[in-house]
Q: What sequence folds into this?
C-alpha cells in the first residue's frame, strides 16, 4: 500500500477527487490527473479494494467518489504535497525520465 499513494499521478487522482463540485468519471479524472485512462482505472480499482473509493455505474459511465476513509487519506496526501512544495520549493519535471537530446537535422542544400 505504501507504493500505492505516493506516486505522483496517484496522489493527483486522490486530490482531484476531493473536489465535490463535479461528478468524477474515469475519463475526467484521468484528464485532471494527467494520467492515462487505463492507469486511472487500475488505480481506482485498487482504491476500491482497500475502501478509499466507491464507484457507481450510470449507464456506461462510472461515477467515482471518495469514501470517508479515502477523504481522510486524500486530505493527508494533499497536506504532504503542500508541505513539501512550500518548504523545499519542489518543482515536478514535465517528464519523470529525462529524454536524450536529439542531434540537429543536417541542412539540405538546394541545387
A:
Amino acid at each position: 500500500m505504501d507504493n500505492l499513494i505516493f506516486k505522483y499521478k496517484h496522489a493527483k487522482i486522490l486530490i482531484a477527487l476531493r473536489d465535490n463540485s463535479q461528478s468524477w468519471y474515469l475519463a475526467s479524472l484521468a484528464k485532471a490527473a494527467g494520467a492515462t485512462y487505463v492507469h486511472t482505472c487500475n488505480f481506482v480499482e485498487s482504491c476500491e479494494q482497500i475502501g478509499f473509493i466507491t464507484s457507481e455505474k450510470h449507464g456506461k459511465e462510472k461515477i467515482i467518489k471518495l469514501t470517508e476513509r479515502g477523504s481522510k487519506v486524500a486530505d493527508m496526501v494533499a497536506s504532504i504535497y503542500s508541505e513539501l512544495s512550500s518548504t523545499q520549493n519542489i518543482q515536478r519535471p514535465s517528464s519523470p525520465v529525462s529524454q536524450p537530446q536529439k542531434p540537429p537535422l543536417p541542412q539540405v542544400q538546394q541545387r
Remarks:
- The radius of gyration is 19 Å.
